[in-house]
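Study the following:
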Amino acid sequence: MDSIIEKCTEQVIEIYEQFDASHDFDHILRVMKNAEEIAKTLQEADLSVVRLAALLHDVDDPKYQTVSRVSAKELLQSSGADEETAVRVLETIKSVSFNGGNEEEIVSIEGAIVRDADRLDAIGAIGIARTFAFGGARGRKLYDAKEKARTHMSEAEYRSKNTSSVTHFYEKLLLLKELMVTEEGKRLAEERHAFMLAFLDQLKREVGLEG
């Protein structure tokens, strides 16, 4: 399995380096680190599936479909993964996306681990940095005092509006702590969530935002 992971890694580096800084290969490495940390607390997890899913989880992201020309399934096949492994990895990846709160059901411990690992990288100091990196890449405003955070969105609605970066905190990032699945994920999310709240409080004071 190590050779499959190595081959996948070689292929995805080139793909992710075409993405903006919020979803580049450094993001993948951080998610991998988070996933391995969480997996240590869950002995029944298949680490090979966890690592492959962490490596490939953003390849099919709709936000970057114009960049990536190859699917996660194709990468697994070209790296020598058998059918059973490919199915388990793709099933795990399917569990990860937030999609405006329209999440897929988690059907495996590996799915829970990679979902929490990815969400940890969406919050805290690194989450703040990634939010503004993505917003800058997409031409989003830093904040909009008149903009109201949306709730109960469909996936299409979530992806369709170019809301400000600060609004994104209220539509996604501040919700993630309560959506963590693993006990270790919940523990690690606490400090990061608190840091985001402190950041937003300071931002409000500096720019005069309400609410």
Residues 183-207 form the longest helix (25 residues). The CA atoms of residues 124 and 192 lie 4 Å apart. The mean pLDDT is 91.
